[in-house]
Design goal:
With 195 residues, the chain is of the alpha/beta class. The protein has nine helices and five strands, in the order βαβαααβαβαααβα. The longest helix has 15 residues. The structure holds BIS(adenosine)-5'-pentaphosphate (AP5). The site of BIS(adenosine)-5'-pentaphosphate has 31 residues, from helix 1, helix 2, helix 3, helix 6 and helix 9.
Length: 195
């Protein structure tokens, strides 16, 4: 049975880390808008240059660009068994765009996973990652701006999905294994492990 999920949470909450593990367990692709933008930036193509001009400042890439990219990704055949969206939608307009995409394809989201984390802890995690990976948006100034933008623009989405009865909140603090166990438990009754 196909399972369609999305994970939402502040920068550094562990969305990408946990999405990879969950997707491996469930046999579905992770669709991370941030990762797709970074891949285009690494290729230095037109989309990558445009995206980098926003991501490097911690600003959102314009909705029309992001929505078009996600719609094209959802049309790839590997999403037939489901998918996990990571980092999309990020504002109310993107929720409406995603609703339309899903409706046009005759599918619905099974669950929205909210991964929570303390602001100070995520700053620490991302500054640590900066030393290892050198992501251009992992400077303290940009990290704090991304956190601010999350609270202002993305957090309101939580109430939308809660009102639809599909929100599952998971505490993102603790070890990666502990958080994964909590996420797996939160999906009990929704997602079955792939064969
Ligand atoms: P995106 O890539 O989505 O960045 P983000 O939301 O800021 O999230 P991060 O990737 O920093 O963190 P994460 O929650 O995935 O945590 P991770 O697992 O990596 O987006 C980047 C940019 O692209 C945006 O700022 C925007 O410009 C643009 N963009 C993306 N989507 C967009 C959209 N929809 N619309 C418009 N623009 C968009 O973990 C972080 C670190 O913590 C890692 O080093 C990890 O190893 C470590 N870690 C993870 N879990 C734990 C744990 N439990 N304990 C200790 N360390 C941990």
């Amino acid at each position: 049975m196909a399972v369609r999920l999305l994970v939402v949470g502040p920068p550094g909450a562990g969305k990408g880390t946990q999405a990879a593990r969950l997707c491996e367990k469930l046999g579905i692709p992770a669709i991370s808008t941030g990762a797709i933008f970074r891949a285009h930036a690494a290729a230095n193509d037109e989309l990558g240059k445009l995206a980098a001009s926003y991501t490097s400042r911690g600003e959102l890439v314009p909705d029309e660009v992001t929505n078009r990219m996600v719609a094209a990704r959802l049309d790839q055949p590997d999403t037939a068994q489901g998918f996990l969206l990571d980092g999309y939608p990020r504002n109310v307009g993107q929720v409406a765009a995603l609703d339309a995409m899903l409706e046009a394809r005759g599918i619905v989201l099974d669950a929205v996973l909210e991964l929570t984390a303390d602001d100070d802890a995520v700053v620490e995690r991302l500054l640590h990652r900066a030393q290892i990976e050198g992501r251009p948006d992992d400077t303290e100034y940009v990290i704090r701006h991304r956190i601010h933008l999350y609270h202002e623009t993305t957090q309101p989405l939580i109430d939308i999905y809660r009102s639809r009865g599909i929100l599952r909140r998971v505490d993102g603090m603790g070890s990666v294994d502990e958080v994964f166990a909590k996420l797996t438990a939160a999906l009990d009754g929704i997602a079955k492990e792939s064969a």
